[in-house]
Amino acid sequence: MKIHMATDHAGLELKENIKIHLLNDGYDIEDHGAYEYDALDDYPDFIFPCAIAVASDQESRGIILGGSGQGEAMAANRIKGVRAAVYYDGPVEIIKLSREHNNANILSIGARFMSKNKIYDIIEFWLKEPFEGGRHQKRIEKLDN
Q: Do residues 69 and 111 touch, judged by C-beta distance below 8 A?
């Protein structure tokens, strides 16, 4: 599976750790930046290319990071075909439902609230959780139309 990744300065270190972990697990990673720490960078510059790539490849997924993950999800969700869910160390049920009911194709992580040790399990769970379809499919179609 191809995974597109992006972050601003707030999630740079965690993105690099996640990227290495996913590469070691055999995933195909495309990194849309940031590539170096710049406290003045702007997350839309990295999030939009990542979200566009995910929207154009329905078999791929995206992982985006920011301080809270909120702004990044808002930016990603402006791209038609993207369904970004925010996670920052809440109940795992949030991850389950984001995939099962909403077919989330991007996971937006609040890097200031997550440890690298815990996030690996969350990401793996999210990547493997299937979309339930059925009654949820028509809702997804309404979002994408």
A: yes
Element holding 137 (H helix, E strand): helix 135-144
Show Cβ contacts of residue 84 under 8 Å, excluding neighbours closer than 6 positions.
51, 62, 64, 72, 73, 76, 77, 104, 105, 106, 107, 108
What residue numbers bound the domain in which 25 lies?
2-144
Among candidate residues 4, 9, 32, 72, the one labeled active-site is 72
**Using CA atoms, how far apart are residues 94 and 81, in angstroms rounded to an integer?**
20
pLDDT surpassing 90 at residue 115: no
- CATH of residue 72's domain is 3.40.1400.10
Q: In total, how many domains does the chain have? A: 1
Examine the residue annotation and report whether 136 is marked as an active-site residue of this protein. Answer: no
Instruction: Give me the catalytic one of 13, 21, 100, 101.
Output: 101
**Whole-model pTM above 0.85?**
yes
Q: Which of 143, 59, 71, 53 is nearest to 110 (CA)?
A: 71
Cα–Cα distance measured from residue 125 to residue 133, given in angstroms and rounded to the nearest whole number = 18
Whole-angstrom Cα distance, residue 93 to residue 8?
27
Per-residue pLDDT for 22 more than 90? yes
In this prediction, residue 66 carries a pLDDT of: 97
Mean pLDDT of 86-110: 95
